[in-house]
Amino acid sequence: xxxxxxxxxxxxxxxxxxxxxxxxxxxxxxxxxxxxxxxxxxxxxxxxxxxxxxxxxxxxxxxxxxxxxxxxxxxxxxxxxxxxxxxxxxxxxxxxxxxxxxxxxxxxxxxxxxxxxxxxxxxxxxxxxxxxxxxxxxxxxxxxxxxxxxxxxxxxxxxxxxxxxxxxxxxxxxxxxxxxxxxxxxxxxxxxxxxxxxxxxxxxxxxxxxxxxxxxxxxxxxxxxxxxxxxxxxxxxxxxxxxxxxxxxxxxxxxxxxxxxxxxxxxxxxxxxxxxxxxx
Length: 280
What we know:
This protein is an alpha/beta fold and 280 residues long. The protein has one domain (9-268): Rossmann fold, CATH 3.40.50.720. It contains 8 helices and 8 strands.
């Protein structure tokens, strides 16, 4: 897969975390030949990610952009900067996420919903839910014009979405997944697709607090995203739209049909078949 994405330009949001899926995916994308625009609010983290990627891919085409996904203006600026720097845009990976109720907080927060402040709620929802909307909206005019593109949303597992004391993180990620499912339907037939990629369970990232009860070495590691994200971002996934993929279940040794059966399902669980009632 070394040259799978040659000629493709990718934006990765939330790429600055030193222990994060954005950093791992940026490395994988660069290895596959993509030009990668890495976005985060943490400039120091972005510099570290750039150095990390270059240490593994010395000739990588990289651009770091300090910006906030919660700002529609920043979203427009990131897309414009990427187009100016690399002359194109093909893939947007909405990876940025947080469970920190305050800017600059040292750890994530797990508490009953009634103790969450309105400001804390608004911040997490802005990053995890509104951010993907702003970024995708900014990217769509270009993607629609070229009639090819990929929107990849990093959400979370259903059990996390509805787990005790996981508000607002869980509900905001549920909203993001529902947004992907809606976008996929709007995009049908345009050449642009929207899909979800999740690790499959708790991941060893900074979203877990330092005092987590999980054994970090036994958790899913961020590099689980590296192989499936390349396939999803490539022309090999043409026509795949509105699906959620579990990275942990992605098995390259299987034929594609078996791989899809094992690792994917419709985004946002429409297979549950909860139907609205329309009285006659």
